[in-house]
Amino acid sequence: MSLEETVLSPQEARILQPGSAPRAGASRRTDKILAEIQQGKPGIDVERARYFTESMRATEGQLLILRWAKAMYHIAQHITVYIDDEQLIVGRAGKPGRYGILYPELDGDFLDTAISQLPARQASPFTIEQQDSLIIRQEISPYWQGKTYHEHLSQALPEETLRLTYDPKDRLTSRFIVNETSSFRSSIQWVHDYEKVLRLGFKGIRQDAEQRLAQLDPLNPVDNVEKAPFLQAIIITSDAIVLWAQRHAHLARTLAEKEASPRRRQELLDIAERCEWVPENPARDFRDALQAQWFTQLFSRMEQKTGTIISNGRMDQYLFPYYQRDIEKGILNDEQVLEWLSCVWVSMAQFVDLYISATGGAFNEGYAHWEAVTIGGQTPEGMDATNALSHLFLRSKREFPLHYPDLAARIHNRTPARFLHDIAETIKEGTGFPKLINDEEVVPLLLSKGATFLQAYDYAVSGCAECRMPNRDTYTSPCAYINFPAALEMTLYNGRMQRHGAELLGLETGDPLTFATWEMFWDAYLRQHINFLRHAFIQQKVIIDLRAKHFAWPLGTALHDLAMDACKDIHQPVIEGGIDLGYFEFMGYGTVIDSLAAIKKWVYDEKRITLSQLLTALEDNFEHHQVLRALLMSAPKYGNNNPYADDIGKALDKACLEFTRQYSQTLGVHLDLRLVPFTSHVPFGKVVHATPNGRLAWMPLSDGSSASQGCDAEGPTAVLLSNYKTKNYQYRERAARLLNIKFTPSIVAGEAGTRKLCDLIRAWCDLKLWHVQFNVINRETLLAAKADPDRYRGLIVRIAGYSAWFTDLSPDLQDDLIARTGHEAF
Questions:
Q1: Which helix (H) or strand (E) holds 113?
Q2: Does an H or E element contain 11, and which?
Q3: Is the peptide bond before 745 cis (omega within 30 degrees of 0)?
């Protein structure tokens, strides 16, 4: 049967049958911008890095947060401001088109290498103009040599930990074993208190800092040396964002004077008037609020490189009062809201999160960023929070074919049927939106870690699958990604890996041929497993100690009540009253479970093969061992509600939880277990040789808490049950588990398919699983898109907590998506 004869998702139909059904809500204004940015590679804009470097050079010796604030003011004064043709919500941090900006304070030691490699890089390449390359080499890079965070981190790690982190002979190269992530982002995912900006404006935030400054004790040395410069930094940063907005107002008036079209001239004058008002002053209406939010988010992007980009928070909550008031006044309608939202979405899509290191680029393929919009959930008082804007955000996703922003819906056991139905219909579009986060899992965990009910009910989705409580979360240090299939390989080769030959990397746990029982093998594996955790926590201790010396965040701090009360930058290790929620990553969960299950089943329980035979097959990458490989692949697999495999998964989960329960307190944080790989399961797989589950050498690992590619053969309900049965619910030291499920469009077709999907989501909620997201797409479409990328340029797929254009992905990641099971029945 040809692809055209199969049941298609609405997205597939739009691509394969263009013009057959005009897209509802189509906007000429934003479609024109979207068409321009879908073509070609993004380019690098050096202005942010240039002006930041100029200021930091001039302020050496001053308190870091004060230096940072002055640098932001210098950027606000000098960076080029733009207003795109047709735009109604303005603001960008770089040149027209898709662009990325540089953060040399973070990883400037990569710059010279990166600018020569980025245009040809397979994963997320960028272009750079020759003149800008010279600016980097002559002005920016020389200043930062020896000063960057990455350099200081690599120098500070103990030798044994360093060997698992970087190549000791080339510390720009990650080993993808116990991988730090703090050197390619200044902070983990974050959500600002945008409502504070809308309510007070930066004039009000500045006045608050001035009042605090006036109340300091002039004789107190701490007040003089630490608190006064801190508050001055808040004042300077507030002035900086207002200045930047005013420059947009001036540009809009200048453009209006030259504009021939009366319609566009009036639009530009309206833009100018709003930029003169917000974000300095409180928002007066819905459009003011949207413009103020976008200015705040974008200025924050220029301030520092936050992992996954600053998220949008609960937009259906903090924007709703403005929406409701304007609707009641008769000055707003839903079509206007959708057009203004799409104007923000295309601006988000043009800012590309640039990772200049090869490691960072491999972690975040497809120009990924996750400025999640959170909808639904519960009010701070515990009532259902769904409103008209919640539905409008879903409609925006259905009608506007763009993968920015990410959209996350909070689900609880009282989520209204109408809202759940709307969510299911949006998922069926096939673009991967929205991802779902479970209040029934998240809220109790936040309470167990010290949050109040008001705070826990008001959390916002942030990053891939995480959550943040604005004004209560205070931990910003990025954490380790741990390649546990590498620990299994070290168990098989006595502390060594095939890629690194005779080099001892792990523990010498003994010759596996001497392991006479499963318990002996399991004990040896656990020793390697715990050793990886030990080094991840050593990394984290060094990272916590270093980051406060390298990064400041005055705008982010100004929007955090606890940080303002303490007069401390949010990057400081301890903010009084805060909750420090961090995590470490279990990479290759399904790969390890399935491999251990195969060893237990066929070597020890059934005695069908020997460890010697297994090792020979692995060393040969299964060449000439196809019968043995087929036997290994027939072992029980995670993702099929099979206790044989799932019990191993639960034991692995418990080993991590027990370790962090004992040792995270020594770091002063909740360092919780997380299974959220982004796209890093692909590069992590490239360092792991063949594994006992039948996986070939250097192939991708399993992703998140999903089953190994193609191994979930018993349907989506079995996938949910395996996730449920491998969790240790008695431990609070758990965090996000990312779960991918792929459907063929036929399984969810029609109203019957929608009801089935709603029932599955209810079951997921009842099982208290953290996260789930769906691809609804035919395998044939993915194969066709790989073969003919020009025809499928607009095809959006869900990857790992985010969606991306399929044609922007590397062939390895495309193949990984193709290999996932496409469920054809519930």
A1: helix 111-117
A2: helix 10-16
A3: no
Cα–Cα dist 785/792, whole Å:
5
Bridge partner residues of 438 (DSSP): 411
**Domain assignment of residue 758, yes or no:** yes
In this structure, what token pair is assigned to residue 172? 């720009």
Alpha-carbon span 751 to 16, nearest angstrom: 23
Alpha-carbon span 494 to 509, nearest angstrom: 5
- Is residue 807, in this structure, part of any structural domain at all? yes
| Cα→Cα distances 154→160, 165, 423, Å | 12, 9, 45
Structural tokens at position 679:
């796209």
How far is 242 from 207, CA to CA, in rounded Å? Answer: 14
Burial class (CB in 10 A: 0-12, 13-18, 19+), 447: middle
State how far the Cα of 585 lies from the Cα of 484, in Å rounded to an integer: 10
Q: Is-contact 351 661, C-beta < 8 A? A: no
Nearest-Å Rg of the Cα atoms of the chain is 26
**Catalytic residue flag (residue 466):** yes
614's tokens: 């297994």
Is the residue at 646 inside a domain? Answer: yes
What is the distance between the alpha carbons of residues 676 and 770, in angstroms, rounded to a whole number?
Answer: 11
Q: The pTM is what? A: 0.97
Around 338, how many Cα atoms within 13 Å sit in the side-chain half-sphere? 21
Based on the residue annotation, tell me whether 464 is a catalytic residue of this protein: yes
Chunked into runs of 10 residues, the chain (826 residues) has average pLDDT values of: 77 85 62 74 94 98 97 98 95 94 91 83 84 94 94 96 94 93 92 98 98 97 97 98 98 98 98 98 98 98 92 98 98 96 94 82 74 97 98 95 92 98 98 97 98 98 95 96 98 98 97 98 98 98 95 98 98 95 97 98 98 98 98 98 98 98 95 92 95 98 96 97 98 97 97 98 98 97 96 91 88 93 93
734 forms bridges with which residues in the sheet?
673
DSSP code for 736: E
Residue-number span of the structural domain to which 724 is assigned: 483-533+598-823
Tell me how far apart the terminal alpha carbons of the chain are, to the nearest angstrom: 23
Helix or strand or coil: residue 678? coil
Helices and strands in the chain: count of H runs, count of E runs: 36, 19
Contact between 206 and 197 under an 8 Å Cβ cutoff? The reply is no
Give me the number of domains the chain comprises. Answer: 1
Contacts of 300 (CB under 8 A, 6+ apart): 192, 306, 310, 555, 556
Q: Are 73 and 239 in contact (CB under 8 A)?
A: yes
Residue 367: count of CB within 10 angstroms of its CB: 27
Annotated catalytic residue within 151, 466, 489, 585: 466
CB 590 within 8 Å of CB 638: yes
207 φ/ψ sector (left φ>0, alpha ψ -120 to 50, else beta): alpha
Q: CB atoms < 10 A from the CB of 482, how many?
A: 25
Q: Does an H or E element contain 771, and which? A: strand 771-776
Measuring CA to CA, which residue among 780, 807, 773, 803 is closest to residue 792?
Answer: 807
661-694 as b/e: b if 16+ CB within 10 A: eeebeebebbbbbbbbbbbbbbbbbebbbbbbbb
The sign one gets for the Cα dihedral 100, 102, 107, 112 is positive
Rounded to an integer, what distance in angstroms lies between the CA atom of residue 297 and that of residue 308? 13
3 state DSSP class of 772: strand
Cα-flanking dihedrals φ and ψ of residue 411, to 5°? Answer: -115, 140
Q: Which residues contact 773 (CB under 8 A, 6 or more apart)?
A: 432, 435, 436, 738, 739, 740, 741, 798, 801
Rounded CA separation 663/679 (Å): 28
The first and second tokens of residue 310, run together, are: 């600053």
Q: Which residue in 275, 343, 464, 758 is the catalytic one? A: 464
Pairing of strands 466-468, 166-167: unpaired
Residue 719 lies in a domain: yes
Distance CA 352, CA 98 (A): 6
